[in-house]
């Protein structure tokens, strides 16, 4: 044992003698270096124990090495020196966004707290990296602030309204018997995203130096030179009137209408003439309203609410959009002058039992007591024209399509209507009594309502036997009343107008499926009295004559809820709301001598 220990000591002495003296020197330097670094680190942590680490900058203010209070004071002092107005220059115009206009508020406590957290996250790698980086470079933090987004958006909108200039493609225009090419225009638009980023940059960095307003040039796609290339083709299309025929009815499309349907499509340097699809679809909708005919039937005999006898009166037909579009395109581009309207049969089954018209599903009623003769004629005529309409399963009923065009040429008289917020004389006044009554019937039948518009103000006739809110207006072509047949069989719309009792009724027949309808009482709020009556001089009336042309009505908000259940499950749950304006009475005062 002693011998082994002696051998180990001998080897250790030998290895010490062989040790390189340079390595010992390096080792000593290393030890000293480590000692210095540890000492510096200790000093660093002592100095910045309660201070923000070096290199940190909030906005444009250096806060590294400062205490919390010193940093906050420096930021507040810097803010006090600034106007905080951002000026954007565009040509010779200046646009300024002030801090007061958008409610700008800097939050220095939050900013300083964030600055103090740098190097103190608890992640030794991240903290060490930040501490070393701060010695040699800037550690930037955006200023903390808040502002009213809506106010800034409004201010930017004001700038856009003054700077933006709409450009425009070159286009065709009819000048007498010629087709001429209009000039194209280059547009200017504020670059919204760039403007917003410039505002944020200013607030982030406390940099309120004037800036150029970011704008972008919008160049037209279609130039005069493009349109000139296809001008001869365009002239052949525009000056070729097309007549559409169906039996004895004709529709003639003149040059302005054909130009409206013409579109230009550019791909690369090549320009082609095409059909303007959106405008053509709008034309098809108008045409369909005139020609579509729903199948019609009649309940001839009832036993209580059960249908004993049902008969088909007429088949149905509707515009075949796809087939007619192809025919029209061929005529449009080839110069053909006459085309037949493409229709398709939509008649129901030949077996009347397959329609499922078995019982009353729901009915609605309204009174028109005191209506003028023209009004009674119009609502009665409209009721007759929608009477007997059969709606297939899944089909949409449209009041406008069912009654067709409302005009003098289709038999309607002039009576008072609501148009653009005014009560004026117009063709078909009183037809809304029809849509209102059908609305009530559909509500009670539990069928889903697809489109319904309340009136602008409360109409006396609709509250004779009903509370406010149970009305529906129509105004062709935009306002319509529509419902959907969500039953597995057809439903029949049947009307009864009785001028003697001034009563209009609508009944919906079909196959009962056990659905139950619950309609709440309407909630009436925000009632407002009508304004004072208005008296208007009318030189066409004899002096001393006063004629009332508009009637006072209280304003109100009315709403009710309809819940439709079937086998314990809710099929439909809808709230119908109406906002009625307070309405003044208007009198015409005769001034004619």
TrEMBL record:
Keyword RNA-binding: no
Annotated transmembrane regions: 21-47
Listed InterPro entries: G5_dom, Glycopeptide_resist_protein, Vancomycin_resist_VanW, YoaR-like_PG-bd
Presence of the UniProt keyword Heme in the record: no
Keywords: Membrane, Signal, Transmembrane, Transmembrane helix
All residue ranges annotated as the G5 domain in the record: 514-593
Protein name per its UniProtKB record: G5 domain-containing protein
């Amino acid at each position: 044992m002693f011998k082994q220990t002696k051998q180990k000591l001998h080897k250790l002495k030998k290895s010490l003698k062989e040790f390189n003296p340079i390595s010992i020197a390096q080792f000593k330097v290393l030890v000293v270096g480590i000692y210095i670094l540890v000492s510096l680190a200790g000093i660093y942590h002592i100095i910045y124990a309660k201070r923000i680490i070096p290199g940190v900058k909030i906005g444009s203010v250096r806060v590294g090495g400062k205490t919390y209070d010193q940093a906050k004071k420096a930021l507040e002092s810097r803010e006090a020196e600034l106007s905080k107005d951002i000026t954007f220059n565009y040509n010779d115009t200046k646009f300024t966004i002030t801090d007061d206009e958008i409610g700008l508020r800097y939050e220095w406590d939050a900013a300083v707290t964030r600055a103090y957290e740098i190097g103190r996250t608890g992640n030794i790698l991240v903290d060490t990296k930040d501490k070393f980086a701060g010695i040699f470079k800037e550690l930037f933090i955006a200023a903390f602030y808040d502002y009213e987004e809506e106010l800034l958006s409004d201010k930017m909108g004001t700038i856009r309204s003054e700077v933006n200039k709409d450009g425009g493609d070159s286009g065709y225009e009819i000048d007498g018997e010629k087709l001429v090419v209009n000039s194209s225009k280059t547009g200017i638009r504020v670059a919204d995203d760039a403007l917003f980023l410039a505002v944020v940059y200013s607030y982030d960095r406390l940099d309120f130096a004037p800036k150029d307003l970011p704008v972008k040039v919008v160049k037209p796609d279609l130039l005069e030179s493009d349109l000139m290339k296809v001008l001869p083709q365009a002239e052949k299309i525009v000056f070729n009137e097309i007549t559409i025929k169906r039996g004895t009815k004709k529709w003639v499309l003149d040059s302005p209408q054909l130009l409206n349907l013409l579109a230009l499509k550019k791909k690369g340097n090549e320009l082609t003439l095409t059909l303007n699809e959106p405008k053509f679809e709008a034309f098809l909708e108008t045409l369909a309203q005139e020609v579509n005919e729903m199948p019609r039937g009649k309940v001839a005999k009832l036993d209580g609410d059960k249908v004993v006898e049902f008969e088909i009166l007429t088949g149905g037909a509707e515009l075949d959009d796809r087939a007619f579009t192809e025919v029209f395109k061929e005529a449009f581009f080839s110069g053909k002058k006459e085309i037949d309207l493409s229709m398709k049969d939509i008649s129901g089954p030949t077996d009347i039992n397959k329609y499922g018209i078995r019982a009353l599903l729901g009915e609605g009623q309204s009174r028109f007591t005191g209506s003028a003769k023209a009004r009674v004629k119009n609502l009665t005529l409209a009721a007759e024209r929608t009477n007997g309409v059969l709606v297939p399963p899944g089909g949409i009923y449209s009041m406008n399509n069912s009654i067709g065009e409302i005009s003098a040429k289709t038999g309607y008289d002039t009576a008072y209507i609501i148009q653009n917020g005014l009560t004026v004389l117009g063709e078909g006044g009183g037809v809304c009594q029809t849509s209102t009554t059908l609305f009530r019937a559909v509500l009670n039948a539990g069928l889903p309502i697809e489109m319904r518009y309340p009136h602008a103000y409360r109409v006396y006739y609709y509250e004779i036997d009903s509370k406010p809110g149970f009305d529906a207006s129509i105004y062709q072509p935009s306002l319509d009343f529509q419902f959907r047949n969500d039953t597995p069989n057809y439903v029949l719309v049947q009307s009864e107008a009785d001028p003697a009792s001034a009563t209009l009724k609508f009944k919906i027949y079909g196959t009962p499926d056990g659905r139950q309808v619950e309609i709440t009482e309407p909630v009436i709020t925000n009632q407002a009295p009508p304004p004072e009556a208005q008296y208007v001089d009318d030189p066409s009336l004899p002096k001393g004559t006063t004629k009332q042309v508009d009637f006072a009505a209280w304003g109100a908000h009315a709403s009710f809820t309809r819940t439709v259940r079937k086998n314990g499950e809710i099929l439909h749950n809808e709230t119908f709301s109406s906002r009625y304006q307070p309405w003044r009475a208007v009198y015409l005062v005769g001034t004619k001598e």
